[in-house]
Design goal:
Elements (H helix, E strand, L loop, with lengths): L4 H13 L11 H15 L4 H14 L3 H6 L2 H8 L6 H16 L8 H5 L6 H10 L10 H10 L10 H7 L9 H14 L18 H5 L12 E12 L2 E6 L10 E2 L2 E4 L1 H6 L4 E6 L2 E10 L9 E4 L10 H11 L2
Helix pairs in contact: 1-11, 2-3, 2-8, 8-11, 9-11
């Protein structure tokens, strides 16, 4: 199959099968840029299915760059509540301000300038250039990696290295419809070349695919080491009020409201007879003991949250998970 046919095959498939996602709506250039920016921030670390309702209500509440730049940070965080990784929301607001102050309210068309904006790194800058500015980039996300690993049946450590995958990306060639093309490749990964049970019979790349020919679909991943860490969360409840603090101590959940916590060793964790929960963070498995205390505790700069009014507060899902556990104790 001549390589030049690849973009045509992929785009034909995309035109017939793409999902109707709210950030893909046909709209003005300014709106397209804004929709791309918001959706790309939300899609960092979060799945499309989860992002859709958040994106829709976020755009309703902050319909353009100006409204986001001017908004009170707490209101922006409230609209982000439940999506997690709140630094994305803070950075998105900072980026909106910077775009208005330094870039005339437009997304720069240059990789380095984009990367100078808060919260925009290698991947997001390339996504923005491809999707919002129709530049010939194919950002390498998990979907694109998986397709390449299967097309070329890449298994060994060297074969699946970043350098080799970047080289192999030339398989896709380029298209004048760069924006659609980048999204089309990712869409094939999301809808057809799924991690488990790929739907090869619906795939436009079936004739090019070594994994299909060999009936070997297993994906080798670079071992992401998820460290196990142990903590105790101290729940102080006095007269129906919970004591919480703003996290300045740990690098995760920075500046967010959490129960007072300490890192402990495995031994202490094992010996405790209190309720234990597991929480997965991006690069860490947290094992947490919940210590309940019904006594008054005073901690400088702490917050007292009324039990009957908890939904009024912006709480990270991490803290909500502990509240949820408490309701079952
Ligand atoms: S043929 Fe199957 S394994 Fe190969 S790229 Fe398509 S969906 Fe993935």
């Amino acid at each position: 199959m001549p390589e030049l046919n690849i973009p045509n095959k992929i785009l034909k498939w995309y035109d017939n099968n793409k999902r109707n996602l709210p950030w893909r709506k046909k709209t003005s250039t300014k709106n397209r840029e804004y929709f791309t920016l918001v959706s790309e921030f939300m899609l960092q670390q979060t799945q499309v299915k989860t992002v859709i309702p958040y994106f829709e209500s976020f755009i309703k509440n902050f319909p353009n760059l100006k409204s986001l730049a001017k908004a009170n940070e707490q209101r922006v965080l409230k609209n982000w509540e439940g999506l997690g990784y709140y630094s994305r929301a803070r950075n998105l607001k900072k980026t909106a301000i910077k775009l208005l102050e330094e870039f005339n309210g437009s997304l720069p068309k240059d990789l380095e300038k984009l990367k100078s904006l808060p919260g925009i790194g290698e991947y997001t800058s390339r996504s923005i250039l491809a999707i919002a500015h129709n530049q010939p980039y194919i950002p390498m996300d998990g979907n694109v990696e998986r397709i390449l690993k299967r097309i070329f049946l890449l298994k060994t450590k060297n074969e699946i290295s970043k350098e080799n995958l970047t080289k192999k990306k030339s398989f896709f060639n380029t298209s004048k419809r760069s924006s659609d093309y980048a999204q089309a490749i990712m869409e094939i990964g999301a809808l057809v070349c799924k991690p488990i049970l790929p739907s090869c019979n619906f795939c436009p790349l079936i004739q090019n695919c070594k994994a299909y020919k060999n009936k070997n679909f297993l994906i080798q991943s670079k071992n992401k080491i998820n460290k196990i860490k142990y903590f105790e969360a101290n729940v102080y409840k006095h007269k129906n009020k919970y004591l919480l603090i703003k996290n300045k101590k740990f690098n995760f959940l920075k500046n967010l409201v959490i129960f007072p916590m300490n890192e402990i060793n495995k031994e202490k964790f094992k010996l405790s007879i209190n309720k234990k929960i597991n929480v997965k963070m991006s690069n860490m498995n947290m094992k947490i003991i919940i210590n309940k205390n019904n006594k008054k505790k005073i901690i400088k700069d702490s917050l007292l949250l009324d039990e009957s009014n908890l939904n009024k507060y912006i709480l990270p899902s991490f803290t909500k998970k502990i509240f949820n556990t408490l309701s079952h104790l």
